[in-house]
């Protein structure tokens, strides 16, 4: 794997046959991750982290395996990523027990990351009933699992709620990044979607920092790529995803370049909702969309890219404007 500061692709919600409903071995999933061109995965078995040693033995210089757990409580699921060796997270509680924050704190004290998982999953206990407060990120895009579609109504609902809370939270000075994962249980699901993270190196601490700070975007496939930046006429360097642009009151130019989404549609989103829309080339070649705004109009801008069917191809965390 090419190291150094760059964008790394990974899937942070992966199940082997040790989780209910899954049929793949760790070896099969690691092979699938390598075949898909991923740089990292997180093992998130249901309510256990005991099998991590087997996964770790399958990792290598070309693929990082992050220890984790899907915490399946009675009133919602969450991901504990970057667990310490031997650490497991308690799961026997629900929203009425007022216990979740104690366990979130335990994970964070060990350097881990806490993610609200598939908030609108349409099955018992899958719908997320806890407040987002205390979580580090929200899984707005969850994969196919029992569906034949990579983008479903529950993802649309999760994205809409995250977008609404983003506008409020940015004004408060604290916001939760979006991530996307496959929630792979069955063959062929891993990596659809996955999160692309800008990190200094392919290590667990560096990647968790990228996820925590929102230097990430989500892709439906490794064939999709993008660059999203904002600058002013006087700024020496542009700001990218998850970064803040000090505008000095100057007009802002937002530029998105997308590869791999034939005849797709780009939309830009601010605290005012959808503020700009533009088409992408029919051949899937590079398409560049520019738009002008200001920090006075909105303290952030983010992008969505959809296929002609309306299904999501990619989406970004915001660029912050001040």
Write up what this structure looks like.
The protein has 322 residues and is α+β, with helices and mostly antiparallel strands. It folds into two domains: 6-219, TIM Barrel; 225-321, Immunoglobulins (Immunoglobulin-like). The chain has five helices and 19 strands. It has a 15-stranded mixed sheet that branches. The chain has a four-stranded antiparallel sheet with strand order 11-10-13-16, with no helix packed on it. Strand 1, helix 1 and strand 2 (40-43) form a beta-alpha-beta unit. The protein is globular and about 55 Å long. This is Histidinol phosphatase. It comes from [Actinomadura] parvosata subsp. kistnae. Residues 10-75 form the Polymerase/histidinol phosphatase N-terminal domain.
Derived from helix and strand composition plus strand pairing, the structural class reads alpha+beta
Mean of all residue-level pLDDT scores: 96
How many H/I helical runs? 5
The CATH fourth-level homologous superfamily of the largest domain? Metal-dependent hydrolases
H and E string: EHEHEEHEEHEEHEEEEEEEEEEE
> At the third CATH level, what is the topology name of the largest domain?
TIM Barrel
State the total count of DSSP E strands: 19
What oligomeric state best describes the polypeptide chains here?
Answer: single chain
List the helices and strands and how they pair.
Layout: E1 6-14, H1 26-36, E2 40-43, H2 52-58, E3 64-73, E4 76-81, H3 100-109, E5 113-116, E6 137-142, H4 153-172, E7 178-181, E8 194-199, H5 204-213, E9 216-219, E10 225-231, E11 239-240, E12 244-245, E13 252-259, E14 265-270, E15 273-279, E16 287-293, E17 300-306, E18 312-316, E19 319-321
Parallel strand pairs: 1-2, 2-3, 5-6, 6-7, 12-19
Antiparallel strand pairs: 1-8, 3-4, 4-5, 8-9, 9-18, 10-11, 10-13, 13-16, 14-15, 14-17, 17-18, 17-19
